Amino acid sequence: MVVLAFGLAVAGVLCAFQMPFREYPGQEYSDFALPADYKDKTEFVFARLMYPQGTWGIFGWLYRYDWREGRSAWTNDYPRADRHFALALHRLTRLEVRSVEQPVSPDDGDDIYNWPFLYCAGPDQWNMTDAEMARIREYLARGGFLLGDDFWGEEDWYYFQRNMSKLLPGRPIVEIENRDAIFHTVFDLDQRYQVSGQWSLRGMPYLNGGRDPHWRAIYDDKGRIEVAVLFNHDTGDSWEWADDPSYPERYSALGIRTGVNYVIYSMTH
Questions:
Q1: Is the pLDDT of residue 114 over 80?
Q2: Range of the domain at 193
Q3: pTM, whole model, 2 decimals?
């Protein structure tokens, strides 16, 4: 509890330096309604990493859009997933969570260092410059936490590994052991399974041959997870469609609990 209290105190200090809320058109939404309290000052903000995407992979066709103006790979499930998860995080923890997310660009100077938790949809899609990679590397070295989600199959994994070898050369990507604190910060996630997307209602519960779910990570020298990897999962969809009666509750149940654990881990480790 002392560690958590310290983490929240640090978050409160960071709020004074963070850039104000901003919104971009997403892949699926360009006019998603803002909640009435979106301007409220809070302890925690769900931050989503913006990035330039390549021409490969499942979202390669989005390369034609300028990533700095939205509609590109980083906006997958945005902003509906972010706002649903922020609401769940507020209800299930003692965190005072802002009702709207924050898109964070590695090109915005030192702003990235003000957001202790970063969510990234499609981390295999990165096509970052050396300078952008360097800033994210420094972000992680300062104690930041990055969660990569929603990429599937061997081809996506190949591109993800290529990105990580540039970001953190020499750092292995390993399976997280069940005893790791990240699975037990708030909920005990001993019984885990693949979290599929809303698209699975049409038949296949996985994409690109990604049949086997994985919970992987890159650790720093002190044994702290700095990059968490939800591979062969669509956790973003489990947040986005949590209020849809046709979407399986079991997916949202695990997806939300996983997100809660990862956020609290990022604030206490």
A1: yes
A2: 2-19+36-268
A3: 0.92
